[in-house]
Sequence to fold (471 residues):
Amino acid sequence: MYTTFHTMTRQRGAATLVVAIILLLAMTMMTFFGVRVGVTEQRIAANDMRAKQALAVAEALVENGIAYLDHNKAVISKPFTGTAPDNDPHSWLNGRWQSCASTAVPCGYGTTNHGYVCTGLISAPPCGNGTTNIYDKPWLFYMPPAGQIAPVSDNIIYTAAYTESVSFVTPNKPNKGTAAVPPVDPFPEIHIIANVTPGADPLAGSAVIRQIVQDFSLLNNVPRVPIASGGVIELKGGTSVYGDPNPDRLFYTSLGSGMPLSLWSGSGVTITSAAAATCQPAAPNCTGTNKLSSRLSSADPKKPDGLDNVGDIVANDGKFPLDLFEHIFGVRDTDAVRIIKTRSTVLTNCDDLTSDSSGLFWITGSCSIGSIGSQKTPAILVVDGAEVSMVASGVFYGIIYFRNDGVAGGKVTLGGSAVLHGGLAAQFAPEYTMTGNPTFRYLDFSSQRPTRRNVFAKGFAKVPGGWLDQL
Fold:
């Protein structure tokens, strides 16, 4: 009995050892599994961080692309003429949207073509995603030269981490141009494509995103002056004209630095009343030394700045635009009805417009202004009728473009204490009738935020729903 009991005791110890070894192996396997899961999760987290980092770089590139478009807005719809400054590489939008394969201006800069037409055969960005074509005819693309758009990765991670590129794609408009004029919509929809790929760091993430933007501004180059006319400007009555309080020397170089511009004419300027005057922009009144009407600038824009170029009136300007409508709206007057009128609220007169009215209005008849617009919500009136008039207490904020061709006896009538904040422009000389003490005060609306409602702000705005990840 003793021997049997001893043997059974030893057998029970062996079973415990086997169980212990099995448990140890299980714990070891669990440890290895936990380590592997931890490493995997760490890699997933790192990859997620790199992906988000690349996406942040791409989104920043899109913002730089929008800034690039805004910077070149003034030349986006101009035709390429083959002469300076149109062939300036920095004015890339001058004809660069044309479909061409040449490496010479305007398509390229001697070695690389930057403007081309997308076809179904092109799968490389920006026409495709690398394997599949996305933008077929009639889409045009443009790839800016190196250095035109600053890299942004050095603000996020070291510069060598990514290779960055920004491209632009826009629809071709074959029915809106000729061989001499690039068939590009004057207010184009542009797809900005930002492509971020690993650079020196092979572990860096990658991202491709698209953002659709639209040029919502309808003004190309607003004259920084209260009254601009290709014909004779005549001040009557007690009219006071206050120029730009923040004059831009680049608008009219012969004025000299820091001088305002009150009257700008392609013909003459006459002041037929002792009470009428141009005035110091920031002055509270137009009396004494605040009157500037005797200070006529040289009519020769080539004359160097000097003591005689200190006036605020420019008359008989040989460089006055031959098409003032195009100068302001970026669209030739012959295309005004087809392009601008279709984007306007068309009215027969101004009777229903109030201080709450803002935006672009095309007036087919005469316009009698009570109070229209406000400083935050100005209006643009394109008047096709025979007369623009303001009542005694009327207040207008915005720009009035009097499109009358002068043949129909166009008149501008102001009276009483009417005030126009902004500007009045006309290609032809209207008949000015001014009684009482009307006031013109230049007001700059261009710094306002670009939206569909605000037609004064210049620039491109993002189209809602126009963002796409992994194009």
